[in-house]
Amino acid sequence: MDRWQMGPEEIERRSMEIIEEELLSRGELPPAENLAVVKRVIHTTADFDYRENLVFSPGAVAAGVEALRAGAWIVTDTNMALAGVSKAALEKLGGRGLCFMADPAAARLARERGETRAAVSMELAAGLDTGGAPLVFAIGNAPTALARLYRLMEEGRVSPALVIGVPVGFVNVVESKELFLGSSRPHIIARGRKGGSTVAAAICNALLYQAAGRAQSWGREEKP
Amino acid sequence: MDRWQMGPEEIERRSMEIIEEELLSRGELPPAENLAVVKRVIHTTADFDYRENLVFSPGAVAAGVEALRAGAWIVTDTNMALAGVSKAALEKLGGRGLCFMADPAAARLARERGETRAAVSMELAAGLDTGGAPLVFAIGNAPTALARLYRLMEEGRVSPALVIGVPVGFVNVVESKELFLGSSRPHIIARGRKGGSTVAAAICNALLYQAAGRAQSWGREEKP
């Protein structure tokens, strides 16, 4: 068959097979409950460092899947990450995706306070009335967002069902992640400097597909 | 100073300093004309493999910068990548960013022909009337887009000023990139399996900032 004629589902299935084979060749697979997330992050980055970098609190995946099944709202810290989250899956589950980075209120408050829009975005998210829907935060870019989220949690102003902390970078990134490691709040963290908006979206999608009862995306071409 | 009080410009400046130090510790820096692109990709991924992975045809960066100064249109293969491209810089230069992945015509044609939307997107882009503006293609996700773009070029149906070929993945990705390596068309390729929408956006932004006469972004918080 002409190599370029393979459809998206077949491409994804074969990619995941290759990833699983390579994970096995490097040692034991990650725990079964975390495997889909690890595979999808490697699918999105082709970086097997995530096999070691990704840290899951006990039951984090189950907590995320349960929240998404209950129609959780996913809050991201970049519009890139939001663009990568499967809208089809969110719709199926009755959830929604939000990002406040382009919100004029975020720009204004950030300017007034001399803070990053990312940090202010977390405050705006904490003020949301979700009508009872749980909140899942997916931070792929800004350590200031992750640090502010932690502070808001400590102050009792927000109570996420799951925190996906995978900002990328060289300044304050590692420190922002260390805040969550060992905390009792369900979390999935990419230890170290690596991470990114596609990683955040990939983790959301792995959880969304599981919540929607799918082994993989249904014909989605984008990698996350 | 409270570590969390650093502003976006300062964070970026220090991050780039750290990246340059680490590049130096690993050997010679990349050639001066390519350095800003390499640094911005590492800024976006925290992955120093890109020091070796990124391949630049002679004068590729200059070709990209010249095209963007002439108001080039940037065509991406994902909405994620488009979301990551600096709209402020595009506006300053009189260019625009496009992606056909969510275009109903792309979905319809893909279904009719049994092809990927990504491949069809390239055909739609090749049919654009840009009013004389050059075209820059930034492929961060789909090998089928990169392969179709190559075919359209060979058939004389499109003539990009620059091709950024950085799709990520495990099936057909390496092969799609090999098509361009050694070709005379100006290209920036991420050799191997690594790449992604954030990498595509980062390369676009590095070129855009250079074209706009900036050493770095002006207070942009997103990493690409």
Which descriptors apply to this entry?
homodimer; 224 residues; alpha/beta; 6 strands; 50% helix
How would you characterize this protein structure?
The structure is a homodimer of 224-residue chains. Chain A is built from 11 helices and 6 strands. In chain A, strand 4, helix 9 and strand 5 (162-165) form a beta-alpha-beta unit. Chain A is globular, with a radius of gyration of 17 Å. The first copy, chain A, has a 6-stranded mixed β-sheet, sandwiched between helices. The first copy, chain A, has helices spanning 8-25, 32-45, 50-53, 60-69, 79-84, 87-93, 104-113, 117-126, 143-154, 173-178, 197-211; strands at 54-56, 73-76, 96-99, 135-139, 162-165, 187-190. The relative contact order of chain A is 0.19. Chain A is an alpha/beta fold. The longest helix of chain A is centred in the N-terminal third of the chain and has 18 residues, at 8-25. The mean pLDDT of chain A is 95.
Order of helices and strands of chain A: HHHEHEHHEHHEHEHEH
| Assembly level | homodimer
Structural class of chain A: alpha/beta
| Model regions low in confidence, pLDDT < 50 over at least 5 residues of chain A | none
Summarize the structure.
With 224 residues, chain A is an alpha/beta fold. Chain A has helices spanning 8-25, 32-45, 50-53, 60-69, 79-84, 87-93, 104-113, 117-126, 143-154, 173-178, 197-211, and strands at residues 54-56, 73-76, 96-99, 135-139, 162-165, 187-190.
